[in-house]
Every structure is written in structure tokens, then in C-alpha cells.
Amino acid sequence: QVQLVESGGGLVQAGGSLRLSCAASGRTLSNYAVGWFRQAPGKEREFVAAINWGRITDYVDSVKGRFTISRDSAKNTVHLQMNSLKPEDTAVYYCAARLYSTSSYKYWGQGTQVTVSS
Description:
about 0% helix; about 120 residues; four-stranded antiparallel beta sheet; mainly beta; seven-stranded mixed beta sheet
């Protein structure tokens, strides 16, 4: 089992930055891909970014050039650095993990709220 806990959300003005963290326990994340997802009120959950076991990254087009996902293996944590935030980035952000041999994210955190004011 993998337990994931997100932190780092909050209220920020447009153009500002936040760094989200996803701390894992129960298993090392070295064999897992970790993704960040978000869900805004009234909208479906959407993929934001992911990093695999080989540190290859992927981003949704709307955050490319603004968000950076990274691993801190020593702390068994994955970060999402969010710069140049926009009001449309407002959502609950979730991290999730999937074992390298699987195609779906099995483990999810409880989410952290990000609110960007205009």
C-alpha cells in the first residue's frame, strides 16, 4: 500500500507561485509513476502532470512552461512547482501513484486546494 499526502496549496494572486508536495509512505516511489490531477468546481478531474520512474515528465498543454514536476527520492516526495498562476488554475489538486507495470493510478491523496485570485 502507498499512502499519499499532499501539501502546499493555498491562496495566491494571479502571476504568483506555489509549490505542491506529495509525500509518500508505505512504499518507495522509485517504482511508481506519480501524477498530479486537478478538479475545479463543476468540472471533471483532469490530468496536469506526471513523472515516471525514469524521471520522464509529461504535462497538459495548458501548464507547459509554467509548471514543473520533480522527484525528491531522498524524501520519497514529488513536487509540483507552479509559476505564473492563472485564475483558471484554481482547483483541488490531487497526487496519485501507479506501479510501473500498471496503466491506472491506484493510490490517491486527499487533495489540496489551490485558489488563484485575479
